[in-house]
Amino acid sequence: MQKPILVFKIGTSSITDSQGNLDESVVKSIARQLAHLHKEYAIVIVSSGAVGTGKKYIRDYSGKIEERKAAAAIGNPILIYKYSEAFAKYKIPIAQSLCERSHFSEREKFLQLRATYEELWKNGVIPIANENDVVSSRELKFSDNDELATLLAVGFGAKLLLIGTSVDGVLDQQGKVVRSIHKFDDKVLGLATKEKSSVGLGGMISKLTFAHLATSMGIRVIIFPARKTSGIIKAIDEKIGTVCSPASVSKTARQKWLASGSLVIGKVRVDEGAKKALLRRKSLLAVGVREVMHHFEEGEAMEICDENGHVFAVGRAKIAAGILQKNMNQQNLLLAHADDIVLI
Fold first, then answer.
1. So what's the pLDDT on residue 199?
2. How many domains does the chain contain in total?
3. Residue 125 sits in a domain of what CATH number?
4. 132 and 208 housed in the same domain
5. What is the SS3 assignment for 181?
6. Are the C-beta atoms of residues 302 and 324 closer than 8 Å to each other?
């Protein structure tokens, strides 16, 4: 039987110092802890730090998109080399995996990616994933490593998603760690501030957003201080950080891929009757749509939100937005079949 999958993500501010230099002691600590867990889990590392490591080689670095891409091109091989050195002590080989959104938005590419990872795990190799910053057509600020880690975790059916950060976990208004989250509501999401580190892209808003998605797909998420001594081990034992409990789900692998990996293009707002029908696992009809908020073509993915603007489902459109808008009052016109709708 295949080992349970553990996805570990570490942010830029946790793996580099204040000047953006790679902190090799953190890399060595990660290798020591994950080597201990290697026999129990199939592990994926999603490591930030490539841009932070490479930017010192870019003259007058200002953070422009082309400079970030160049810094990533320089920093990535340095980062991988340091990981390879650290894991060699435990006789564990590592592999580099540079991912793009098309690896998740296109089902065939995703299946190929998953097959590659399974071959690596079968041979005792730990893949280290990062976004393919150099050629990605999507600006980096729209695709941070919290998202990549979540796409991998959901797509591969991970048991655990560990998000290593520079703070002690999700903090309440008094600055104390929220030890557990069982439900993501407005109160919980309101705990996140818009602050982020000077070297990283994400912040607590990003972490809670993707933790919400992962838990809705049945994955336990732990947000914890990555620099804490034996932090990974303590996080798994739920001794530190914030533990986000997984929901009980019965979604198929395809539905999980649709909810997480699909490149969502469109967005519609539906009435209360349509929402209730979708919650009962019914299809979405054109007559239940109040507004097309973002356009889409036939076959593209769209977010489905209620009258208050809260997204509660993702679906694949049977018709284009233009046809929908001309026929919104037509009875029995199918917008999305129940099999192509995932509640989130």
1. 42
2. 2
3. 3.40.1160.10
4. yes
5. strand
6. no
What is the pLDDT at residue 137? 53
Q: Same domain for 316 and 218?
A: no
Which residues, 6+ apart, have CB-to-CB distance to 344 below 8 Å? 213, 216, 259, 311, 312, 313, 314
Token pair in block for residue 95: 């592999």
d(C-alpha 105, C-alpha 260), whole Å: 9
Those residues whose C-beta lies under 8 Å from the C-beta of residue 42, and which sit 6 or more positions away, are: 2, 3, 4, 5, 6, 121
Q: For 303-322, write each residue's pLDDT tens digit.
A: 899 998 888 888 888 999 99
Give yes or no: residues 235 and 271 share one domain: no
| Domain range for 271 | 263-343
Residue type, 301: A
- Assess if residue 38 is contained within a domain: yes
- Distance CA(290)–CA(309), nearest Å, equals 11
Distance separating alpha carbons of residues 133 and 186, to the nearest angstrom: 33
Phi, psi of 125 (to 5 degrees): -100, 140
Model pLDDT for residues 212-254, shown as the tens digit of each residue:
888 988 899 999 999 999 999 999 999 999 999 998 876 666 6
User: What's the CA gap between 98 and 75, in Å, rounded?
Assistant: 13
Cα separations (Å) of 40 from 6, 43, 92, 156? 9, 9, 14, 16
pTM: 0.76
Check whether residue 234 and residue 267 sit in a common domain: no
